[in-house]
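Hey, I'm writing a tutorial for new members on how sequence and structure tokens pair up, and I'd like a real worked example in the thread rather than a made-up one. If someone can provide the structure for the chain below, I'll link this post from the tutorial.
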Amino acid sequence: MSEPTEPVPVTRAVDSGTARLLPDLDGERAWLLTVDGAPQSHVDLDDPEHLEFEYVRRIAHVVDTAARPGGPLAVVHLGGGALTLPRYVAATRPGSAQDVVEYDGGLADLVAEVLPVPSGSGITVHRADARRWLSAAPAASADVIVGDVFGGSRIPAHVTSVEYAREAARVLRPAGVYTANLADGAPFAFLRAQLATFAAVFEEIALIAEPAVLRGRRFGNAVLVASRGPLDTAALARRTAGDAFPARVEEGEALGRLVAGARPVRDEDAVSSPRPPDGAFSIG
């Protein structure tokens, strides 16, 4: 009997650059996806509940607290990567209906070929622009919308405006939650504007981030949470505080001080997120 072959890296030109799938030696079927050297996703096919990236774990906490544990949800993922979070939701909330919108068709094809999702997962991948797809989605059709749209290492301008936030609110059900992965560093011009933008549309907003990022000590990820109904920020705070890299949940007056003076972004003056400093997210 022949010995099983070791997984080997896969490199392919995709629409947004050069994608690489790198085997993770810590898991027999675990993979790291990078695009132009920047980490995009980590997936463990044998353990979809394992979330390697801290910001993904924080978004998962938002999904976990959006409804009763284990109950199915209708989730829209704007930005797909290697489908880490959709796999997590399928495992933790069986029966969920999930739409994944991925602009990079070449990347979607690579993931489908090398890291296919199990049959009957409830995950449907759409090759489309995130905002265009959202504008055509039915009203009040989603419990959660996850925004993780990046063009390279930057968030495109057209998913940062009040008009975009209104589309997200339209697609969400009354108690639905919008959450997004943002990236910025001091003095937080982009982050503050995003908070002001979503506060102009949603009644409740919160922010999850590591203290070092909030204090401006380094460029990093911050997770926005927005809803028209009450947010269970106490449950979020407990979960994020227990992570390997603890984060804080900012809301109310503390968040208001961060946002003070920032103005909502309109389509006509929207800009992409700032380019990360060299080495902020890249790997060798």
